[in-house]
Structures are given as structure tokens and as C-alpha cells.
Amino acid sequence: MDMEMLSSAFEYAPAPESRSVVDIAPSYGLFIDGEFTEASGGKVFKTVSPSTEEVLSEVAEASEEDVDRAVRAARKAFGKWSALPGSERAKYLFRIARIVQERSRELAVLETLDNGKPIKETRDADLPLVAAHFFYYAGWADKLDHAGFGANPRPLGVAGQVIPWNFPLLMLAWKIAPALATGNTVVLKPAETTPLSALFFADICRQAGLPKGVVNIVTGDGRTGAALVAHPDVDKVAFTGSTAVGKAIARTVAGTRKKLTLELGGKGANIVFDDAPIDQAVEGIVNGIFFNQGQVCCAGSRLLVQESIQDELLDSLKRRLSTLRLGDPLDKNTDIGAINSAEQLARITALAEAGEAEGAERWSPSCELPGAGYWFAPTLFTNVTQAHTIAREEIFGPVLSVLTFRTPDEAVAKANNTQYGLSAGIWSEKGSRILAVAGKLRAGVVWSNTFNKFDPTSPFGGYKESGFGREGGRHGLEAYLDV
Amino acid sequence: MSEKTEKTERLSVFKTYKLYVGGKFPRSESGRVYEVTDAKGNWLANAPLSSRKDARDAVVAARKAFGAWSGATAYNRGQVLYRVAEMLEGRREQFVREVAEAEGLSKSRAAAVVDAAVDRWVWYAGWTDKIAQVVGGANPVAGPFFNLSSPEPTGVVAVLAPQESSFLGLVSVLAPVIATGNTAVVVASEKSPLPALSLAEVLATSDVPGGVVNILSGRTAEIAAPLAAHQDVNAIDLAGADEALAKELEIAAADNLKRVLRPQAVDYSGTPGTDRLTAFLETKTVWHTTGALGAAGSSY
What we know:
The complex is a heterodimer.
Chain A lengths: L2 H7 L17 E2 L1 E3 L2 E3 L6 E5 L6 E6 L3 H20 L2 H17 L1 H12 L3 H22 L17 E5 L5 H14 L3 E5 L6 H13 L6 E3 L4 H9 L5 E5 L2 H11 L5 E5 L5 E4 L5 H13 L11 E5 L3 H12 L20 H16 L3 E3 L15 E4 L6 H4 L6 E7 L2 H9 L6 E5 L3 H10 L4 E4 L18 E2 L15
Parallel strand pairs in A: 1-5, 6-7, 6-9, 7-8, 9-10, 11-12, 11-16, 12-15, 14-15, 16-17
Antiparallel strand pairs in A: 2-3, 4-5, 10-18, 13-14
Helix pairs in contact in A: 2-8, 3-5, 3-7, 4-5, 5-6, 10-11
Chain B lengths: L1 H6 L25 E5 L5 E6 L3 H20 L2 H17 L1 H12 L3 H21 L3 H5 L1 E3 L5 E9 L2 E5 L7 H12 L3 E5 L6 H11 L8 E4 L3 H10 L5 E3 L5 H11 L5 E3 L13 H4 L2 E9 L11
Parallel strand pairs in B: 5-6, 5-8, 6-7, 8-9
Antiparallel strand pairs in B: 1-2, 3-4, 4-10
Helix pairs in contact in B: 2-9, 3-5, 4-5, 5-7, 9-10
């Protein structure tokens, strides 16, 4: 059937989520020792809505001095917090989980405004996972003796945590929940382009009655993060972001006692075998690379399809992409939201251009991009070889590179032919093949007949240059314990 | 060795100490050797003074061996490690002598060290098929999935053996690396490399596949630098590095994000625990779709 006719025949009416549920202040300070304070230099920066370029708020830019103040507050709070019975720490975290649930509509709208991702995702993925993560680690706080790290495992002290802009509040939860459950105190730096949900989280800490200084939020750019990572009184560094910055951080902490965990980039292979259920595989491919506009470290950005079904699969995939709705992230029908920043859009654009220049074939569904804001149409490349830039470098955008294979061995070899090792997907109806291929993939998370699933009980993290350490599950405790 | 020549008419046969790379015993490609002396400064032997080329060759051998060794069953690896203990037990006298000379220990102290080293192989032999059950397992995710986390070996691990504890220390850092399926490039104690080079002879006759363990002697700093910077080395144990070298190597290791085990005070006579096993393990988590039998609609 003609897709354009079909889509015009079933045009959707706009169904925007109301933004009145969230009250964004014109400016925010740093959250240090339980108080919002201005940056010492008085510097501020603006945070904008990526879908409209509207300024949402002005946020303090933390200097080295502010970072030091935050670390000192965390150090001061550490003694009492780590000495609390685990059962008491647990209750604070349970409170936080419940308040997140209560305020999840507000936080979902806020996150969509500041990040640009569809409300469908913040509402159905980010926020439920945030609450679940706090709920999960809350329960660990008084059970650490039984976690397999020996009796009475001790916290490390002050954790310096730097998080990215793609899942701002979820990444905060992944960092703060295990840190607090194990008795550490934290200084967290949210990403420069998405500071607001972390600042709202400060208010949740207040509502939960969390002791002052246990959680400190310092906003700023890379310089603020670098100051935090390099601070001599930080005992633990946790970073989620690019591999390049991860390597710089690893060099910074070299020769110190700081414990380090890194969750970095990826170039995940999504492998579709000839016996895969095509319709489900197509949904998985779409979810793998277009969830959150592809701005996902574990995105399935390389589609490896068995040669014999390439045409059938690509036809289905293109048909499906033609039905994706790109536009207002607050609209409940929107599938593809805005790219997070002009900078990221420029990077995606440049890499896609490199793909064309190197001879890959570019395709996008016909798709009208809004006039204001940062947008990139869902894109797929065929005729991609392993040597192409778009098959090697993380694009962190809605761009899928399609490669083919003939045998399972070739699929595994191609999937593993990357500096990264974060995620992979396998689509097949044959159990033994799934198990064999999953066993050979050098990746920390493998999804079979699904993709981009997350759960607080499930350890997440990479092999090779995708970083080290695990977040989530019992494994996630280790990063914050002196073991 | 030299003492024996005095006691008997017969002139003893010296051993030419060689490297152990890819299951073979080459000299250093550089043709260099250095003098190894006992604790009192008496000449013991000339040991190969490995070059960066030797280090690279060893990495190639370790990488080549990784697929089969990591793919071997845990039971098989356990039997191979146990075989190392058996072979070592049979050569006990030789190692007691070498350790006594290398570390300046009395015969009885050296015997205790060698016994402990044999027992350490036995300890890790038993771990090969248990560690996955201790550190892995199913995760109760909120959805129709069977979600399983399993430990997997990190890959090629560079091991800087402890400088002082030239044999028990060496075994204590090496055995856990290969127990889980990693392959190793070992830099022996700089001052006392002979027990390590002799261990290679034990490994070569213990069903340890060639390339699983590669042993280099020489200047630790010289050999460690190319290993720490090597793009096909996945991890590095800095046990044998001093503070300044450890920092330098950790910085170099960041270039491909090697897993780094920093030097720490270790009493090698104590029970090892699992830390050195888990230091060179990755966790792989696989989500298997289960569907929902009995529920309305399709299985997924």
C-alpha cells in the first residue's frame, strides 16, 4: 500500500502533554550542603529546550572553588551517613523512590523539555526506571553483609559522579542510588545541556529529609567535571559519557587511590538471522537505533542482516520508518524527538555526510523537520563496509548502518570488530544459535529477540573501550564498596 | 650450582635460562642477557634481557591462545591447573633450591614457600568451575525475560610479577589470571627471574596450551612500558611495579582502557580470596525473551 496515502488517511490530531505540571524557576544555584547557593564567580549559563531553542532557565556554573566546597560538604556528611544503620539509609532511599513516583509526571515533562526526547519515553521508560532503581538499591542498604563481598563491607567515602545528557535523571539514579545505599556521599555533576532534572532531584532530597551534604549537585561544563574528578578528596569517580573523556579521566586518576568505573561509548551490533521473526526484528531494530533519537550508548547502530533476507528486511524496515512521527516531544504520539544540542546535531550531520562521501547509500523517510530546534530525520545507510567511518565511530544519533553476513561465524566476527563492547542484539528463532552467538559476542549486554531493555537488577556495562565496572544489580554495589 | 662443582669431580651442566613464548623457549630476539645473582651477590646464571619486540611477540602468542583457552570448559582448565601442581610437586627439590638462592631463604623457609605455591595451584584449580556460580547468576528483571549474568575472561593480561616474592608471589598473581580463561604475558621478578623461568618448564609439561602463559625476564620498566601501551592487551596487573612506574603504566594503559590492578600490599602466604580472580573478569548479561505461556496473545 502507498505509505503516504496511508499516513494522510490516518492523520493524528496533536495530543500534547501539558507543561503546566512543571514549574521551572528562572534561575538555579548549586545544591551544596543542603542549600542552593550561587557559584563563587557568579557565572551562569542557559539551558534551552532543544525542540524550540527556548531558554528554560539560567543555571550556576560551578568553579573549582565551588567543587571544593561541595566535596567538603560531602566529606563532612560522610561520617554520620556511613555510620547510620543500613536500615535507616534504606528508608531514605525508599522515600526518594516513592517521591519520584509521585512526581513522575512533572519530572517526565521537565526531562522532555530539557532533553528533547519524546514524552512517551520519559513517561514510560526514564521515570519508571528511575523510581525502580532507587527502590531496588534501597533494599540493599541493610543487606550488604549478604551481597558476597564479605562481612561488613565499607563504603569508599566521597563519590564524584559525572553523568551525560541522554538520560539525565536515569543516569543520576544509576549513580546516586547505589552510592547512597552503600553509605557513600556524593557530588554529582549533571550534563551542561540537561541540568534541570538533577536540580529538581535536589528538591526531592529536601522532601525526603535527606541529611545535608549527602547529595550535592554542581552544574557546569566539562571544566566543572574535570575539577570534580581531579579533586584530591574524592575517593571514587564514576563517569558515564564518551570514550575520549573516559580515557582522559582514567589518566587523571592514575596513580591515586581513587576507584574508577566508566560507562562509555558503543557501536552495538544488532544481528538478524534468516529465521528471525521479521516483524518483531524490525520493531527491535527501530527501538535499537531510534529510541531516544539514537542518543544511547548501547544503541544497535550497526544492523547485521543475513544476506538471504536483506531485501525483505530492508523493505519492512523502510516501511516501518515511514510511519515514525517526528516532532513536538511533548506530543504523546511523537516517536522521534529533538537532538539534544546544536553541537550534537552538527556531529551527527558531519558523520552522516562522511557516510555518503565514503560511498554508503543514504536513505530517510520523507519527513518534515520543524523550523526551530535541533532535528535529524531517521536515517539508514546501506552498502556499508566495516571500514566505513559510520560503521566504526559512534554517531550517537538516529543513524543506522546496515551490513550483511552469510554465516554465524561471519556475524560474530563483524559484531566483534570494534573497539567497543557494550551491547549487541540477536534475532533468531533457534535457541542453540542464540546461545552460541551470545557466548561469542564480546559485549557486556546482549539482547536476544529484544533490544534496549533495562532493569535495576540487571548489571549494565561494557567490555573493551566501552569502559569497566557494572551498574545495576548486585554487581553495581562493588563500585561503591571498599572491596 | 657452582657449589656442586666444588664438591664433586664431575663438572655440572648449567642450564641456559630462556624465555617462554607461545609454548616455545626462545632466547631474547635482542640477543641480550643479564647477570642474575643470589642474595649474596654470587653469580647464578645469565637470564634473557627481553626487548619490546619480545613483549610484542608474547602478546601475539597470548592473543592466539585466548580463543581456545577461554573456550575450554572450566572443568578442563581446572584439570590443567591441577596438573601444574602435580608437576611442580615432582620438581619440589629444584624449586626449593632456586627459591632459596633467589630470595636468600633457608632451605626450610624456601620449602614452605614452594609448598605454598603448589597448594596455590590446587586452590585455583578448584576455582575454575566455581567462580561463575559465585559472581554470576540470574537477575529477576521485571518482565518476560530470562536475564543471566556470567563472568567472562577479560582477554590478554599483562602481569608484572612481584619483585620480592619471586615464586609464591608469581604463582599467586598468575594462577588466578589463567584460571578464568585469560591468557597472560608475565614479566618475572627483575632481580630473581630464575624461579619464573623454571616454572615455564613445568607449564610446558602440564597440558597448559602454548601461549596461555608467556614469561619474560629482564628490566621490568623496559618490558612493561610496551605492554601497558599495547592496543591488544586488555588488562594489566601492576603487582611488580613501584609507585612511580605504576602511575606511568596506568596512564599508558588508559589509551585502550585496560583494566588495571594497582599494586597493593599483599601477604602472599595468606589465603588469596577471590579478588585476583574477579579483577580480570567481565560480566556479560544476556536477556533471553521468554514470552508468556498461558497468557493471551502470542509468545512475544
